[in-house]
Amino acid sequence: MATVKLLNLKAAIHRLEGVAPPSTYSLFYRASPAVRAFSAATSPPSKAVVYEQHGPPDAVCKVVELPPITIKDDDVCVRMLAAPINPSDINRIEGVYPVRPPVPAIGGYEGVGEVYSVGSAVRGISPGDWVIPSPPSSGTWQTYVVKEQNVWHKINKSSPLEYAATITVNPLTSLRMLEDFVDLHPGDAVVQNGATSIVGQCVIQLARVKGIKTINIIRDRAGSDVVKENLKKLGADEVFTESQLEVKNVKSLLADIPEPALGFNCIGGNVASSILKFLKHGGTMVTYGGMSKKPVTVSTSSFIFKDLTLRGFWLQKWLSTEKSKECREMVDYLLSLTRDGKLKYEMELVPFDQFPSALDKALGKLGSQPKQVIKF
């Protein structure tokens, strides 16, 4: 992945505002010494992961040098500390995600940073504070980010760095799905596939905090016994491989766990059908992903005799609703759980200069890997 220098200041301002620069402007050329100098009213020069067109991330992404830009009165300049590579980030670069910034664009959608400087009208945020974009905001794969104050949410600096960088997408998705569809009470149960995903791990732990039992489905693979044990250490009540569910009555596997009223599907295909078999009469299955790229098939009896409800969840849409005003309180709650050791998931912190390697891992080129989190 090449490193090039980006100088066009107008283009740089456009990229921070989330607007593609005019095609008449050249995106890449060498910076002069005069541009390298910056004052207190501008951001420092920045390095960023930029893509000029949609396509395979390892082909279209470049690490570039950006010039300083002016910090307006209500702007906050943030030195990024860490930002993850999420599947949705990959999809945005590929051009297949429903909501994406216009190109050329800077990658990344969530992360955590330290306030470097603030505009004259900014109140309540000071240099040295830790902040996250909340709701998430595009362009976090760069060393310095300048956005208006209302984008940033000040957080507790004692929060673990990697969790602060990743709290606003997967953990928030898990929390909302547990709270938005069925009125659950301590002793109730939920069932999910994709239990080893970060959303799945968060569902297990957040359910445990709420006194809710979890039934979890994982793929058949080498080392599945170790995977089961690790999920149970997080608080999973039951963990089944897909092949274990090839029985006439899956509910016979539940022992003393009540029939779940709520199920989460991120796989699709036959594994989604297994979720439906577990649900009690009148239960609800929420689909938030389709990793198998196979459709959800529902039997006629599931509708007629079980009166099941099928719903979908997309965090991006939820963030556009009035309910999203509570987003920052939820983020603070989730971060408090990470500080107390009640919410955790596997991640790998990778230096920014090793971004190409981290991207390869995130793309699955090196097999199953922990979530890649870039450390700036």
Detailed description of the structure:
The protein is an alpha/beta fold and about 375 residues long. The chain is built from 13 helices and 17 strands. It has helices at about 10-15, 35, 55-60, 85-95, 160-165, 170-180, 200-210, 225-235, 270-280, 300-305, 315-320, 325-340, 355-360; strands at about 5, 45-50, 60-65, 75-85, 105, 110-120, 130-135, 145-150, 150-155, 190, 215-220, 240, 260-265, 285, 310, 345-350, 370-375. Strands 4, 6, 7, 8, 9, 16 and 17 form a 7-stranded mixed sheet that branches. It has a 6-stranded parallel sheet with strand order 12-11-10-13-14-15, with helices on both faces. β10 (about 190), α7 (about 200-210) and β11 form a beta-alpha-beta unit. It is globular. About 40% of the residues are buried. Residues about 5-40 have low confidence and may be disordered.
Provide the succession of SSEs.
EHHEHEEHEEEEEHHEHEHEEHEHEHHEHE
First and last CA, distance: 17 Å
Total helical elements: 13
Helix vs. strand class: alpha/beta
Percent helix:
25-40%
Secondary structure tally: strands: 17
- Low-pLDDT stretches are 3-39
**Principal-axes shape call:** globular
Q: What is the residue-averaged pLDDT? A: 89
Strand content: 15-25%
- What's the main sheet like? 7 strands, mixed
